[in-house]
Write a structure and sequence with these properties.
single chain; mainly alpha; two-stranded antiparallel ribbon; 24 helices; 58% helix
């Protein structure tokens, strides 16, 4: 492991590492963008306090080597600055949508329809997609507008600084559960294609993503772009073959009663249980947000493209996802007689059967290539997002940050363990349980963004910095805790058969209702521990991309990433603030001790700007 940064002055903060800023010297404007392919340039090393680099005292916090490299870190624990958000809306959306190439949708859709029949299964998939789409819209827009990932949005959307720690674990569990599911599908494909034992396949599927995820957003963007043509051909071709070779398949599929005796008619119990399984994918919006935070500022010139890109790459993923669930169920139904129920639920076998009429003996390698490419595309996203979530969790618990890349290994070890335990065999039960917690979380965040902020119970912007937040906000955190607890009890049958079937609806309904009710009952008191004088509402800011130099790491950051610190008597960046273990939260506990004298922010150098419209673009991202 890399060495964690060590404080270099007596009484300084605990060991930690702050990502390098997009600036060459403290207080300087953001660095120029990276290479034309979208890979950010490696940041320069920050100089000492005097800015000349010679004879100046070292900063209170130095950088761990990997944590200092933003080409790998991608601002994993902080606001993504405008200087880093240089991809176009289309590139960001394309990269985000590339991550939904997974074939778990095929397995989930087939499992729902096989268990509950086509009619109930179809209704379940459509209902879940509608809920996921509607809750995803405000979250996607918030992440893209403010340059924040799901964890940071959750902090400011009703959960508080430590309250969102639990949701980091919920999100991390989503990434390793689905990494294990997707890895199992990939191992099945390699077993079919070359006879590789599935246990060895599990290990290969885990190791293969590490070099890509290690490199960060730039590498992920390249992988998604290069593999997209193969994936599109592989996705569409089986259905083209079926349209010519088995045109009656859809008609027969519509009357399919499942393999468990559910029958072809509609069942409320089947509908409720099936919706619960499909809703396990609701936390996918978090992975979309990990890309959306790099969306450029919305301007008059790009607002149409920006809106379309955010809608498509945010909640829009579920439209493709629902189509894949139904398509996967159709392929499994057609292959059922040839391969049997067990193998029909494994996406590789139905893919082979669908391609055989046209490709003959080449169907196996073609299907295997498609599955492997699909699973690499999604599992690099699962591993990447998991590393972000674990980083957020441990930075708050331990006050240390060795770098995002080390948490890749933690996430992958857990996923590999789940694969070796054959979690694929318990798919419906595992996903049904998880969805109770996931939907309670997402529904609470959506309720805060849509209801609380609009009626004034919540601040009109997303505040994510520790210096201004209460540790726990009962509005979102309390709503999620109550909703998930009640729904889990229902899921295990405590309240009867129908409540068990509709446990996820209970979770969603309670969370959506309780979040504004608790905010109203508490008068919105627990959103802000004190006002934000740097860039909060009512503060006149000429250019949001102006920078302050952090008094701890002595590196320049844009205003949304800066807080005023009474302990340091000056500006502090959000990550150094998070990692401070000795300040005692004085700024929150004693906010009336007087204002902190802050220096004037450093305005961006015009030569480094992208034209006259840039300042307006930057300001457009503020509330």
């Amino acid at each position: 492991m890399t060495d964690t940064a060590i404080p270099q002055t007596a009484g300084a903060l605990e060991a930690a590492a702050a990502p390098a800023a997009p600036a060459a010297t403290p207080g300087a404007p953001a660095a120029a963008p990276g290479a034309p392919d979208g890979t950010p340039a490696a940041p320069d090393v920050a100089l000492g306090a005097s800015g000349d680099g010679a004879g100046s005292p070292p900063p209170s916090r130095s950088y761990a080597k990997l944590a200092a490299d933003e080409s790998r870190e991608d601002y994993s624990l902080r606001y993504a600055p405008h200087s880093f958000r240089r991809w176009s809306p289309g590139v960001v959306a394309g990269t985000a949508l590339g991550g939904i190439a997974y074939l778990a949708d095929f397995a989930i859709g087939a499992s729902i329809v096989f268990t509950y029949g086509f009619t109930s299964g179809f209704a379940s998939i459509m209902a879940a997609a509608t809920i996921i789409f509607l809750t995803g819209i405000p979250i996607a827009r918030a992440c893209a507008k403010y340059g924040l990932d799901m964890d940071l949005v959750t902090r400011g959307a009703g959960f508080g600084y430590f309250g969102s720690t639990l949701t980091s674990l919920i999100y991390a569990s989503f990434t390793f559960i689905f990494f294990a599911l997707e890895g199992s599908i990939m191992a099945q494909a390699m077993h079919q294609a070359i006879g590789l034992p599935v246990q060895a396949g599990y290990l290969i599927t885990t190791l293969i993503v590490i070099p890509i995820v290690f490199r960060g957003m730039g590498a992920l963007a390249k992988v998604q772009a290069w593999t997209q043509p193969i994936w599109i051909i592989g996705m569409v071709l089986p259905f083209v073959v079926l349209a010519f070779e088995a045109p009656d398949a859809w008609g027969a599929f519509g009357s399919f009663g499942g393999t468990e005796g559910a029958g072809s008619g509609f069942s409320w119990i089947g509908f409720g249980l099936g919706t619960g399984v499909a809703l396990s994918l609701i936390a996918q919006i978090g992975e979309q947000a990990d890309y959306l935070r790099f969306m450029p500022a919305k301007t008059e010139a790009n607002k149409r493209r920006w809106n379309i890109a955010v809608l498509a790459a945010g909640p829009g993923w579920v439209i493709i996802g629902a189509a894949k669930q139904l398509g996967g169920a159709l392929l499994a139904f057609v292959a059922l007689g040839a391969v049997g129920k067990t193998h029909a639920l494994e996406p590789i076998a139905p893919q082979i059967e669908a391609l055989k009429p046209w490709l003959g003996s080449f169907a196996l390698p073609a299907a295997a290539l498609f599955v492997i490419v699909s699973q690499i595309k999604i599992n690099v996203t699962n591993a990447y997002s998991g590393s972000l979530s674990w980083s957020n969790f441990f930075s708050r618990i331990t006050h240390r940050h060795p770098g995002r890349v080390w948490y890749i290994f933690l996430n992958l070890v857990i996923a590999l363990t789940l694969m070796e335990m054959n979690m694929f065999a318990a798919l419906n039960k595992l996903l049904g349980f998880y969805s109770n917690v996931g939907i309670a979380w997402i529904a609470a965040v959506a309720a805060d963004l849509v209801i609380n902020k609009r009626i004034g119970l919540s601040p009109p912007y997303i505040e994510f910095k520790r210096a201004y937040l209460y540790a726990v906000n009962p509005a979102g955190f309390g709503a999620m805790l109550i909703a998930s607890t009640v729904s889990i009890l229902a899921f295990f049958g405590l309240f009867g058969t129908y409540a068990e079937a509709f446990s996820t609806f209970i979770a969603a309904g309670l969370s959506l209702t309780l979040c504004p009710l608790i905010a109203w009952a508490t008068g919105g008191k627990y959103y802000l521990a004190r006002p934000n004088p740097v860039n909060g509402p009512g503060v006149e800011v000429a250019d949001i991309t102006a920078t302050h130099t952090c008094s701890v790491c002595e590196t320049a950051y844009e205003l949304p990433d800066i807080a005023d610190c009474p302990v340091r008597s000056g500006p502090i960046c959000s990550l150094c603030c998070s990692l401070d273990a000795e300040c005692g939260d004085v700024c929150r506990k004693e906010p009336a001790n007087g204002p902190v004298l802050m220096p004037m922010p450093v305005m961006p150098v015009p030569a480094l700007r992208d034209g006259a419209g840039e300042s307006a673009a930057a300001n457009a991202s503020r509330v």
